[in-house]
Every structure is written in C-alpha cells, then in structure tokens.
Fold this sequence. Notes:
The chain is an all-alpha fold. It is built from 8 helices and 2 strands, in the order H-H-H-H-H-H-H-E-E-H.
Amino acid sequence: MGEAPKRKQAFRKAYNREMKRQADAEVFGAEIIPPKPPRHRGNRIDLTPELKEEIVQRVASGELLKSILASEDMPSRFSVFREYERDPEFGADMKAARQVAADLLAEEVLEISDDAREDYKSDGSINYELVARSKLRADNRKWLASKFDPVRFSDKVQTDITSGGEKIEAKEISPIEQARQVAFALELAKRSAERS
C-alpha cells in the first residue's frame, strides 16, 4: 500500500471518529467540546507592574491562570511563578486575588446547586445525566475554592494553639520521663479498676 492511500485511510478514520462523536453528542444532548488549541509555552516577556496588575485582576475575576497565560502576549507560567519568589508584594496580591476568586467559586456552587430548570425531562422522569453533571461542576468548584482559600473553604479543621499571641513550642521529653509518665498512667488505671 502506497503512502497516499495510507494517508487517505487515516484521514477517513479520523473523519468517521469525529462524525460519530458529534452524532453521539447530539443524541445525548451533550455540548460538543472543540479540540484543545496547541500548547503555548509562553514568550520571554518581562512582568511589568501593569502586566502583573492585569494578571492579578483577571485571577480575581475568576479566570484560571492557565487560560490567562495562554495568549501570545503573556509570559510563561515559569516566569509568573518565579516572580512570586522574587516579588513578595506580587505574591501577596495573587493570594488575595485567589481568595476573591474562591468567593466567586462558592457563589457559582450555590447557583449550580439551586438551578433545577432541567432536572426533569418532558415525560416527568429525572434527568440523571444533567443532575450528575451539575454535581460534578459544583464539586470541582468546591475543591478549587478549598485550594484557593483553605482557611475558609477547606473541610480540614486546623487548630492553632497559642499562648498570649505566641505559638507554644513543643518540648522534647527524654525516654526516662516518657517511661515515668507511662508508669504513672498505668498506676492510675490500676487504682481506678480496683475501686470499680
């Protein structure tokens, strides 16, 4: 088989796969997702104060950093992350912007959860596919909000023990002291058992 027929056959297979994907999407009522654009590695663009401000504003408005940096006039992710280390003010601005974005994500979770317009099909049955998709969208936003602002949106409970505003330092206990404390606890347990 020559080179041209192989290319024709490969093209035909790819075309048929795409047509089947679009037909399946129409049958199941799914949104057709366009193919991903080619990856942008970022240009060697200096992060000026204006560019930093634009990135911070766009992150605060809910845009993901990946999509912000995808355009040709933006620097690479590496440049932005390196700038976090160099410029503490930029790092603090980005942290604050992510906290604002976490608030927006939390609001979106409520909107998605409260939107029940198409939860039922025309015949009265539950549209399980749409309900599951809504749950997935809400869960993804909750997870992202917990990463952007873990203090307010994380499920993990953190306890900060302080004494007069100062953190309490843990002191090391020698093995002899540990043995003494264990023996004391055992003696208390023995006396308690004898009283019962």
